[in-house]
C-alpha cells in the first residue's frame, strides 16, 4: 500500500479537519493508501515530525474547528527547500503530499512540485481569494461568524445612537466584508477593490443617521481610502513577506467621528472569524475536497489543486490556482452599493 502525507499550513480555518477525515477515509477504505500527518505545516515536514493517521484517529473530525495537525507559517522554500522535503518524505516512505493551504502555502507547493516533488493542493482560506475555485472552505463559516457578531454590534449601536464600525478579515479580497455586510444590513461596506473616499463613507453614515438609524459600517482589513497608496499594516510583514493587516477600523473610528460628528466605536473581529465549528456547507465542501485529493493522487495527477466548480469537484494546475487573486468584481460591489446610506 502506498503512503500519502498530509499537512495543514498557513492560517487556521474551519473545515481543515474535515479535509483530513475525507482524505483518510477515501484512501484507506479503497485500500490504496495509508497516511501520515505532518505536525505544524511545512515545519513538520522539514523536521520530520509526523503522526500516523488512521480511521480511528479521524473519527468525528468533520465537525471540529481548527486543525488536529497544527499549523504554522513556515516557508519551506527558505527553510531547506526541495532537498529537505524530499529527505523527510523518504524517511517516512511517503509517496506524495497533500498540502492544505491558502495562497502562500500553495505558492510554496507549486515551487516544490516544479522541483519534482509529488504534491496536490487543497484550497484553504476564509478569504475566498483563490481564483481557480468557486469557493474555498472556511469562507462560509467566517461570513456566518462575522454576520452574527455584526448583528450584536447593531443592537448596542442603536441603544447609544452610535456609528458602529466592524473590521473583518479577507486580506486583499473583500468577500467577507461584502457578504457579511449585506447579510447584516450595513449602511456602508468598504473593501480594497473599491477606492471609496472617506467623505463618501461619511455621507453614507450621515444619510443613515438622518433616517433615524444607528449607522453600521463594515470594513475589510485591506481597505485603502481614495487618495492613499497602501493598506494600513502597523505590525510589519509575515514570513511570506506579506503585510500583517489589521487596525483600519480604529483609524476609521477617529476619522468618521471627526467628519460626521457622530460618536463612533470600532470593533476588530480578528481571529474569531477563524475559530469555531465549520458550517454544514464547509463540512461538506471540505470533505469532498479531501476525497478528491486522494482520487487525483491515485490517477497520478500531481502538481494540481482540487477545485470546486458549481456543484462539481475538479482539478486545476497549481500554477493556475495562484496566478491571480479572486477579488470582488465591480458589478458585485455596485449591487451592494444600492443598499448603502
From TrEMBL:
Any one Gene Ontology BP term: fructose 6-phosphate metabolic process
Residues annotated as binding substrate: 125-127, 162, 169-171, 221, 265, 271-274
PROSITE patterns for the chain: PHOSPHOFRUCTOKINASE (PS00433)
UniProt main location, coarse: cytoplasm
EC numbers: 2.7.1.11
Active site (catalytic residues): 127
Reaction catalysed by this enzyme: beta-D-fructose 6-phosphate + ATP = beta-D-fructose 1,6-bisphosphate + ADP + H(+)
Compartments, record wording: Cytoplasm
InterPro entries named among the record's database cross-references: ATP_PFK, ATP_PFK_prok-type, Phosphofructokinase_CS, Phosphofructokinase_dom, Phosphofructokinase_III, PKF_sf
Binding positions for Mg(2+) per the UniProt entry: 103
Organism whose genome encodes this protein: Paenarthrobacter ureafaciens
Entry keyword annotation includes Zinc: no
Pathway: Carbohydrate degradation; glycolysis; D-glyceraldehyde 3-phosphate and glycerone phosphate from D-glucose: step 3/4
NCBIfam families per record: PRK03202.1
Residue ranges of domain Phosphofructokinase in the record: 3-296
Summary of the function given for this chain in its UniProt record: Catalyzes the phosphorylation of D-fructose 6-phosphate to fructose 1,6-bisphosphate by ATP, the first committing step of glycolysis.
Gene behind this protein: pfkA
Cofactor(s) required, per the database record: Mg(2+)
Protein name: ATP-dependent 6-phosphofructokinase
Record's keyword terms, sorted: ATP-binding, Cytoplasm, Glycolysis, Kinase, Magnesium, Metal-binding, Nucleotide-binding, Transferase
Family: Belongs to the phosphofructokinase type A (PFKA) family. Mixed-substrate PFK group III subfamily.
Highest taxon listed in the record's lineage: Bacteria
Swiss-Prot/TrEMBL site (Important for substrate specificity) positions: 104
Binding annotation for ATP: 11, 73-74, 102-105
Coiled coil: none
Gene Ontology cellular component terms for the protein in this record: 6-phosphofructokinase complex
Listed GO MF terms: 6-phosphofructokinase activity; AMP binding; ATP binding; diphosphate-fructose-6-phosphate 1-phosphotransferase activity; fructose-6-phosphate binding; identical protein binding; metal ion binding; monosaccharide binding
Amino acid at each position: 500500500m502506498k503512503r500519502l502525507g498530509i499537512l495543514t499550513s498557513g492560517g487556521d480555518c474551519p473545515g481543515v479537519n474535515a479535509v483530513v477525515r475525507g482524505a483518510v477515509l477515501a484512501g484507506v477504505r479503497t485500500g490504496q493508501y495509508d497516511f501520515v500527518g505532518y505536525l505544524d505545516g511545512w515545519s513538520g515536514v522539514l523536521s520530520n515530525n509526523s503522526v500516523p493517521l488512521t480511521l480511528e484517529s479521524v473519527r468525528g473530525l468533520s465537525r471540529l474547528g481548527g486543525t488536529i495537525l497544527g499549523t504554522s507559517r513556515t516557508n519551506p522554500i527558505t527553510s531547506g527547500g526541495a532537498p529537505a522535503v524530499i529527505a523527510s518524505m523518504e524517511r517516512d516512505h511517503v509517496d506524495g503530499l497533500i498540502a492544505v493551504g491558502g495562497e502562500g502555502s500553495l505558492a510554496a507547493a507549486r515551487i516544490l512540485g516544479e522541483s519534482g516533488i509529488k504534491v496536490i493542493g487543497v484550497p484553504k482560506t476564509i478569504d475566498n481569494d483563490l481564483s481557480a475555485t468557486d469557493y474555498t472552505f472556511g469562507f462560509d463559516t467566517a461570513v456566518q461568524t462575522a454576520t452574527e457578531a455584526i448583528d450584536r454590534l447593531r443592537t448596542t449601536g442603536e441603544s447609544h445612537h452610535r456609528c458602529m464600525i466592524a473590521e473583518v478579515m479577507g486580506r486583499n479580497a473583500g468577500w467577507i466584508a461584502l457578504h457579511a455586510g449585506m447579510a447584516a444590513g450595513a449602511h456602508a461596506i468598504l473593501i480594497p477593490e473599491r477606492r471609496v473616499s472617506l467623505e463618501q463613507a461619511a455621507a453614507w453614515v450621515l444619510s443613515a443617521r438622518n433616517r433615524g438609524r444607528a449607522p453600521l459600517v463594515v470594513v475589510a482589513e485591506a481597505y485603502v481610502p481614495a487618495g492613499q497608496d497602501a493598506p494600513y499594516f502597523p505590525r510589519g510583514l509575515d514570513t511570506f513577506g506579506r503585510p500583517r493587516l489589521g487596525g483600519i477600523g480604529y483609524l476609521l473610528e477617529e476619522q468618521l467621528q471627526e467628519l460626521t460628528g457622530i460618536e463612533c466605536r470600532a470593533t476588530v473581529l480578528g481571529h474569531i472569524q477563524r475559530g469555531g465549528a465549520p458550517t454544514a456547507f464547509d463540512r461538506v465542501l471540505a470533505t469532498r475536497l479531501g476525497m478528491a485529493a486522494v482520487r487525483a493522487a491515485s490517477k497520478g495527477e500531481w502538481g494540481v489543486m482540487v477545485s470546486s466548480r458549481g456543484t462539481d469537484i475538479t482539478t486545476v494546475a497549481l500554477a493556475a490556482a495562484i496566478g491571480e487573486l479572486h477579488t470582488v468584481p465591480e458589478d458585485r460591489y455596485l449591487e451592494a452599493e444600492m443598499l448603502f446610506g
